[in-house]
Amino acid sequence: MRVCDKITRRITMLAAVLLTCATFSVRSAQAAPYYVTVAGLGGEPDYEQRFTALANDLDKLFKAADANAHVTTFTGSNATKAHLSDTLSQIARDAKPDDSFTLILIGHGSYDGEEYKFNFPGPDISGDELAVLCNRIAAKRQLIVNTTSASGGSIGALQRAGRIVIAATKTGTEKNATVFARYWVDALRDGSADVDKNEVISALEAFQYADRKTAAFYETQKRLATEHAVIEDTGKKEAVRATNAENGEGLLAGSFALLRIGTAQKAANDPAKRALSEKKEELEQKIDTLKYQKAAMSAEDYKRQLSAALLDLAKVQEELDK
Amino acid sequence: MNWAGTPRARRVFLCGAVCLACLAGARIASGATPDDCHALRRHGHRAEAQKCYESLTAARDPYLRAEGYWGTGMYQEANNQFRIAVAASPANAMIRVRWGRLMHERFNNTDADGLIKEALEKDPKSAQAYYGLALVSADGFDNKAIEYTSKATELDPKLYEAHELMANLMLEDSDQAKAFAEADEALKISPEALDAMAIHAAIEVLNDRAPDTWLEKIRQVNPTYGEGYALVAHHLVFNRRYEDGIAYYRKAIELDPQLWSARSQLGINLMRLGQEDEPRKQLEMCYNNGFRNEETVNTLRLLDSYKNFVTFKENNTILKLQKKESDLLRPYYDAELKRIIDTYNKKYKMTLPGPVQVEVYPDHEDFAVRTMGMPGLGALGVTFGEVVAMDSPSGRPPGQFLWASTLWHEMSHVYILTVTNHRVPRWFTEGLAVHEETEASPEWGDRITPDVVMAIREKKLLPVADLDRGFIRPDYPNQVLVSYYQAGRICDYIQERWGADKLLEMVHSFAKLTATPDVIRQDLGMAPEEFDKQFLAWLDKEVGPTVANFDKWRAGVKDLVEQAKNKNYDAVLKEGEDVRRMYPDYVYPANAYEFMAQANIAKGDKQAAATILTTYEKIGGHNPPALKQLASLEEELGKPAEAAATLDRLNYIFPEDEELHRHLGDLWFAEKKFTGAIREYAAVVALQPLDKASAQFNLARAYFAAGQKDQAEDHLLASLEAAPDYRPAQKLLLQMKDSDEGNKNEGK
User: Fold this and answer.
1) Would you call B91 an interface residue with chain A, using a CB distance cutoff of 8 Å?
2) Which of A73, B224, B612, B697 is 20 to 30 Å from A13 by CA-CA measure?
3) What's the total number of domains in chain B?
4) Is the CB of residue B691 less than 8 Å away from at least one CB of chain A?
């Protein structure tokens, strides 16, 4: 009985995921992504250099991935509270609800027990101030990635419906400099972050990649981990270390296309191949359903049905590629 | 040394007669003194002794109450009474000594040391205080134990316990003659010196002679003195004769079932031989009866953690790996164990009588439990007969050790202990094991470190006849490491000068219990002193320039670091070469090779960078990023086979590296070395990567290329299950179907 309940719940969730993905696919034809990356105050030349390099890497990646993307990057003396506020205000004027908005903060942060602040040369910006600026942006799908020390302290201020918030630390009390940003950038460079091989790196995939690499860094160096990345995308719950069906986190992040790394989407939008695309989507749904029913099937039956569906899908893809 | 394995618990009472001489007035109204109680216990009158101690607990004097509670096993109350006694008589040094001894008995050497040192401040001529400090120091194999014991006997020549302790320390140092003399000295002072008798018995057993006369003497004084057997057992274990030691521990607890220290050691040593059920039973019994020293508690914890391990049994090996890393490590360990066993079977002209058990601990603390109470370094691996315990490669930061080299080292012990029936001096088995590491691969084994260079320069290498001491009770920091190096080089020298068979000849001589000086005379045909002279001359030819230039080299490295920091690449290359020539074996952090390679890369000379890194690799450098860089340069220079060979070396250093396996798999796949590619791609899968799809796909394509279609199909399905739209996997699926249909058509 419990197994059946679980499967039903999973299928419901799967349907929700598919619905979100499908909605996103349609919208993405016209929508434009907005990316803002900020490398804050380094404090020391080493940090300054590192933060700037990471921000510049992201800048290149975003620009290369989508010619229509609106990419703004602040480093060095340009990275100030005023510049960031102006840019976010401008995006609030330009962005439409179907657009997506991504803000990535790299640098040092502080948390006094009540308020989080991102460190700029000159006046810092608080989590609340950031939230106010981002809340004015009409884009319904937003991602804020705060990779700084003490970034966990910003989650409460930043979270809201339709926004994914990722922080490098689980609380504001993890105050040591973080390495999460390095692996976040790696996630967008390394094709292996695209675990479902749909040629899109989602926010969830990037989070999982960076989180895993960060943990491996501390483990390999035999150092006590001083940062534990978290994610929240429901807008109302506690941020979590790992998303799953039980905690209900990850649905939005899984469907948020952070970076496109291939041409699959173009083919899907080609009217001449629409029938094949629909067939493909049907098969993908069939495979997903099979996977969620796996526990309730015999191993042989599962293998037989899955093999057949995968073969059909491969054939359809072959046709699409022609 | 491990007095926890000896009857330490009772020893404190047996020495009472002397220490209480300082407290002559300490007596209760009924007339019993702690001395009286100790004497009863010493003679095996347990019930009477118990009553005696109980009577002390009713005394007015808090010190007497403390002794009474201690004697009845009420340690907390004894501790409280000692506190009151010290407050009442703050100038009395002996009360502090006795309190310190209670702490020592109850596994708290820190407080024991502090209290006894306080006593010494009050009475700098207290022989008992020095004896107490010696006991505490002896627990940690501290060389000060000998110094303190000597001081104790100097201050009180009649302190027979100090002579017993010195006899024990000397026997641990393999100096049987001195141990014998000290034990005799103790017996001259007290004909009832039970531990002196036990030392004599241990000397007999270690020489394969019957100890009956001495054991009978012990029985005459105290028929239930299990401590005597436990002391013999301790020395057997110390000489790696675990099974014999276990037999004596069993006799000890047969005589005195409540001798928890012996029972605990029985459990620990049974576990060292690969058992689990009885050790748990024995150790739980100790724990439940309040005997909770660090070894007992941590060993029980380790036994609990075994549920997270998985055991693989083959014909001649039992491999115990933690579940999480078993899929990854097993193929590498299996292959290396096979290579080792094949090599050693031929080399040592023997086969092991049973399977060898290799336990691999990813948590260094778990491994450390296995070496607790053992002398020597034991930092990476330890061998107990046919059981090897070692750190997993994941247990240390990458590049800190070569697991395969350690495995060869430990397996050499297994063979040498077996062929000598555990009768071999420590220096020789360690030296041979170090020698074998480099024999297995010239790139393995430790290179001469700055500590060793300084030891040579300061003429601190020990004569071969005394080399054991360097392993057991070091005189200076890092002497253990220096002794490993020296012993290894002695074996290198013997092989070079007399041939490999000479080493085997010596193994057999040691097995006949021949002492080191006699083996040197008999097998090498010279006096040990002459051997030392010739060995040092040989060593000097090789490392003499490094030793002579050491200060210059240090200054050169300092300058090199600065030049590299300032990006003065020409200077780095010029000075780096000088620094490298002065100390070519220096492959540790801030070595010239890596600085020069970086300078070459900065100057755009990839070939030169590859050349210097290849030299680094061949001379034993094993920093993973440097070797990865070499592999990458080799690839760029169009040498994929060399790149693959370089990456494969990293498998023996730090196999927990997804990128390494994936890349090596790709290189081998491209070279059509499909067996190797399968191993590497399987390692990626075993690491449970986020990108399951490509990991499974790579493995599938390697199997397919190797003609193993069933496995290919399974892994391809796993790949597409993770990512149904994964194009390369889809293409392979269609290719496999086409190939199936092609085969069917051919069949028609």
Assistant:
1) no
2) B697
3) 4
4) yes
